[in-house]
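Thread amino acids onto this structure.
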């Protein structure tokens, strides 16, 4: 990992600035940025825009990160784009114009720009990888930006206070370009507001311009904005926290409409109803056992998961849990542990993963029974054998392989 825009700026220049051939929307945030990216891109496609999205990380295949016209990139096309990026890197190295070899994320981001240029994309929705100010996606000049949420995560890179994290994420603010802001702590909003003011960027608070009314007894919503009225809409993405994400996406789409991009009500509805974002409270039934996969990988995500479990009435849960060593494991377990009968700790397939045995030591404070099984597939089998509702969470690096097994 290496922060800074020097490498990506050099790469895009060597490629002939593919990022300037389409309009961009940049979305940052601690949680929810992927969901907003998907909802926004889905709505744009429904409006007839040739749209693409770039997200990270992937669950199973690298191709998942690059979606054009609603489909993952073809492997051959990705190889070709990566070949172009590699050629640019080789040229820059020969001339001594790179301070260091580009990172994986810098190469992937440059490849996304090249793919979108080749596909004649009109608007690309870009999810920030980490932070914002020094993230490779921040090399573009967007037509709109958004911050979905601010909470603790990646403190080693972003700082140990909400204010410092907010400042890094608000680094996506550009002069005169509007920023849509989801619900954030007051201290974070103060930082974001100051940065917007200094850049002459309009700050649009999603909750002030989008009203989401939940109908009693089901997941159906009514949505009101200054320019739209959408009734009896059932979002594809479950959980109350997704209503906040939906409000950011709708406010963002309204802003694009004000800029002259035609986005009818039906397209906005389509963006929420038909958004496909796997492993976000995704439900499976396996051998008669209900199972939820959720990409909660920090305390804020775990709290949202716990809220959903309370909402649907799940208790005596078996939690399959794996996490990275640099995450707040205790904070995640505090959020969901109280609803767990058993926690099956496992080792996510990543060099950064905390071993199952170490996770189990931490988990014993939070559930009556804790087990340690290194292999995720075996951990899943053990959870199924207990015949109770299962939740799998803790790391996307765990959820991806488990989802592949379940499918």
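Threaded sequence (407 positions):
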């Amino acid at each position: 990992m290496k922060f800074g825009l020097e490498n990506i700026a050099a790469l895009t220049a060597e490629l002939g600035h593919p990022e300037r051939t389409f309009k961009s929307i940049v979305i940052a945030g601690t949680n929810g940025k992927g969901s907003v990216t998907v909802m926004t891109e889905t709505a744009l496609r429904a409006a007839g825009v040739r749209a693409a999205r770039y997200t990270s990380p992937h669950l199973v295949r690298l191709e998942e990160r690059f979606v054009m016209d609603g489909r993952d990139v073809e492997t051959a096309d990705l190889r070709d784009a990566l070949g172009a990026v590699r050629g640019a890197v080789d040229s820059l190295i020969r001339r001594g114009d790179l301070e260091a070899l580009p990172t994986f994320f810098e190469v992937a981001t440059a490849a996304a720009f090249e793919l979108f240029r080749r596909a004649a994309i009109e608007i690309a929705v870009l999810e920030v990888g980490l932070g914002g100010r020094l993230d490779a996606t921040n090399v573009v000049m967007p037509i709109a930006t958004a911050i979905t949420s601010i909470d603790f995560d990646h403190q080693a890179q972003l700082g140990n206070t909400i204010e410092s994290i907010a400042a890094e994420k608000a680094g996506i603010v550009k002069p005169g370009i509007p920023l849509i802001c989801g619900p954030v702590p007051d201290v974070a909003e103060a930082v974001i507001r100051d940065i917007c003011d200094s850049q002459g960027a309009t700050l649009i608070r999603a909750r002030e311009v989008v009203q989401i009314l939940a109908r009693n007894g089901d997941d159906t919503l009514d949505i009101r904005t200054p320019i739209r009225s959408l009734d009896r809409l059932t979002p594809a993405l479950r959980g109350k926290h997704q209503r906040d994400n939906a409000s950011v996406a709708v406010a963002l789409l309204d802003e694009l409409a004000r800029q002259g991009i035609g986005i009818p009500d039906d397209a906005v509805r389509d963006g929420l109803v038909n958004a496909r974002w796997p492993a976000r409270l995704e439900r499976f039934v396996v051998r008669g056992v209900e199972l939820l996969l959720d990409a909660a990988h920090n305390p804020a995500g775990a709290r949202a998961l716990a809220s959903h479990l309370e909402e649907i009435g799940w208790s005596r849960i078996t939690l399959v849990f794996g996490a990275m060593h640099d995450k707040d494991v205790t904070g995640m377990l505090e959020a969901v542990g109280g609803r767990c009968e058993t926690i099956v700790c496992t080792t996510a397939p990543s060099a950064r993963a905390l071993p199952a045995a170490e996770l189990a030591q931490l988990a014993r404070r939070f559930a009556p029974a804790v087990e340690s099984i290194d292999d995720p597939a075996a951990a899943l089998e053990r959870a199924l054998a207990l015949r109770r509702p299962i939740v799998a969470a803790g790391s996307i690096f765990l959820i991806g392989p488990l989802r592949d097994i379940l499918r």
